[in-house]
Design brief:
globular; about 400 residues; FAD/NAD(P)-binding domain; about 35% helix; binds flavin-adenine dinucleotide
Length: about 400
């Protein structure tokens, strides 16, 4: 194979970077992962893996361990402040065996980190990469202390939604912050693996929203929507206000709310709407949130990052040279990434904005759509990560799994 072994640098030891490191090291490339944290760790609480992301974990040999760490999710139930069902989607509408998986970020992180080390990738912690330089056809990563890393035949940028390298490589890239973000915390919940396992949301107008996602047999993650301006690291969180508003919105969730607020270990999350002119520039390619970050309204970001990682390794394996590999990668991932970025962006103001009339539209239209037999499976397909664009979608295979 013409491209083996490549010298590959990966910036960022997150979901996309770790998965890419494992696939690329498995393929025989020499892989170095550059991570800013001295002790690499995930930021945030729990997330929902779709059949797409689970397929990538299966390809990495991690699916079984992920399934035992996480909590199987059968669907999504969103209710308004009066308890009226607005969103009601079930994976079984796609295939009786289909499901999602709620998982703690720390559990997913540990699985992926062990996997990348077992694959032979080298992890270099404590280096914050701030720029990229070209050295002929290769790329050198420069860290904040003027250290140089490389040269690499390929530099994979996976430094997340607040990427420092995006603007350096693509000065015209856009990545505005969303005006709303959220806080989240994982708390013990003995009922997390009860008979009905759902990602549940409760919302009132467009300024108040809470979610509860089972992420382990005995734990759930609570999400609470807040304005981005209230999420700065210097702003103290008013957890008593969160407690009172959340209890008023969702009294039945009192035990989760009380545990989360008394634990006080909320992480803060802000998100960006990222648009790059293209996914690569010479020997530098962007994957994951660095390339197509968006709001988590459709719960796809980690899944898209995992799919990027798989597609990148496959494209390198199939291509005769780097330019062809980048072209193949962009063709494989471009349409789906663009769809989910745009669809999340369109949907977000209906759940997180100051446009209160949008809540009325949301409650009427989404409720109607979820009750319409032809539309409902299409919406479930969006949730399951199956869309390839506005006009095309993929299907699960005969076992109810996503075919990679
Ligand atoms: C509240 C919330 C809920 C979400 N829920 C879901 C969900 O249910 N399902 C889902 O699929 N997705 C979800 N997402 C999105 C998901 O978290 C992201 O899409 C995913 O983590 C992106 O992975 P990544 O590897 O691209 O970036 P990240 O996971 O952010 O990793 C980036 C890595 O790069 C490192 N880094 C950053 N800058 C530098 C630098 N300059 N030098 C070196 N290293 C650097 C960071 O420390 C980090 O380790 C959610 C996001 C939020 C905020």
């Amino acid at each position: 194979m013409a491209l083996v072994p490549f010298e590959i640098g990966i910036v960022g030891c997150g979901v996309a970077g770790q998965a890419a490191a494992s696939f690329l090291a498995d393929a025989g490339h020499r892989v170095t992962v550059l991570e800013r944290f001295e002790q690499p760790h995930p930021v945030g609480a729990g997330l929902l893996l779709q059949p797409t992301g689970l397929a990538v974990l299966r390809a990495l040999g991690l699916e079984r361990d992920a399934l035992s760490a996480g909590a199987r999710i059968d669907g999504l139930l969103g209710e308004n402040q009066w308890g009226i069902r607005v969103i009601d989607l079930a994976y079984c509408d796609l295939h009786p065996a289909a499901f999602g998986l709620g998982i703690r970020r720390s559990d997913l992180f540990d699985l992926l980190r062990r996997r990348l080390l077992a694959a032979g990738a080298r992890l270099v912690p404590g280096v914050e990469i701030v720029d990229v330089e070209r050295e002929g056809a290769r790329a050198v990563a420069l860290d904040r202390k003027a250290g140089r890393h490389g040269p690499f035949d390929l530099l994979v940028v996976a430094d997340g939604t607040h990427s420092a390298l995006r603007q350096r490589v693509f000065p015209r890239a856009r990545a505005p912050l969303y005006p709303w973000g959220c806080i989240c915390a994982t708390v013990p919940d003995p009922l997390a693996s009860g008979a009905v396992r759902l990602l549940r949301q409760r919302f009132a107008d467009t300024t108040t929203m809470m979610g509860i996602l089972p992420v382990a047999p005995d734990a759930v993650t609570m999400f609470w929507s807040l304005r981005t301006r209230d999420l700065g690291p210097e702003r103290p969180l008013d957890l008593e206000a969160v407690r009172q508003e959340a209890l008023a919105l969702w009294p039945e969730a009192a035990s989760t709310i009380e545990r989360a607020v008394s634990g006080g270990e909320f992480s803060r999350a802000t998100y960006r709407h990222v648009a790059l002119p293209r996914s690569s520039e010479g020997p530098v390619v962007f994957v994951g949130d660095a390339a197509h970050g968006t709001s988590p309204q459709l719960g796809q970001g980690a899944n898209l990052g995992l799919l990027d990682a798989h597609a990148l390794a496959r494209s390198l394996a199939e291509a005769g040279d780097l330019a062809q590999a980048m072209e193949l990668f962009s063709r494989r991932r471009g349409a789906s990434n663009r769809f989910y970025r745009s669809a999340s962006h369109l949907l977000t103001p209906f759940f997180q904005s100051d446009s209160v009339p949008l809540a009325i539209l949301r409650d009427l239209l989404l409720r109607q759509a979820c009750q319409t037999p032809i539309v409902r499976p299409m919406l479930t397909g969006v949730l399951a990560g199956l869309r390839r664009g506005w006009l095309s979608a993929e299907s699960l295979d005969t076992d109810g799994q996503y075919p990679l």
